[in-house]
Amino acid sequence: MKIYGIGSDIISNIRIKKNLKNKKFLKRIFSIEEIENGSKLKNKFMYFSKRFAAKEAFVKALGTGFRDNINFNSISILNDKKGKPYLKCEKSLNKKIKVLTKKKKLNVFLSLADEKDYSLAFVIIQ
Q1: What single DSSP character describes residue 74?
Q2: Which one of 1, 12, 17, 38 has the lowest number of neighbouring Cβ atoms within 10 Å?
Q3: In this model, does residue 38 exceed pLDDT 90?
Q4: What is the pTM assigned to this prediction?
Q5: Residues sharing a CB contact under 8 Å with residue 43, sequence separation 6 or more, in sequence order
């Protein structure tokens, strides 16, 4: 399969840490599932920072950015049983992506990393 798009993003963790107390920010950016999973963790801001970066990287790989009803909270960044991150979109966004890309199925590869001050995400859509 050919590569449809590549996206990456890096974010300062302190930027997300400052906004985590704002419930409007959380609901606008993160899905319910992400908020529930993140609330159980000790280093919440690193968890949310990586997800923020992954969503940005994903829309860059799509080539759309956040517009035309593509919203942060319609994309979830979750982990499988072994901890591998994966991307899950709401059904309405999946339909929009299929129309946009003219593809029935896309493979999305996601890599996340963090360090004391920064979080980073890299996405390949095939």
Answers
A1: G
A2: 1
A3: yes
A4: 0.92
A5: none
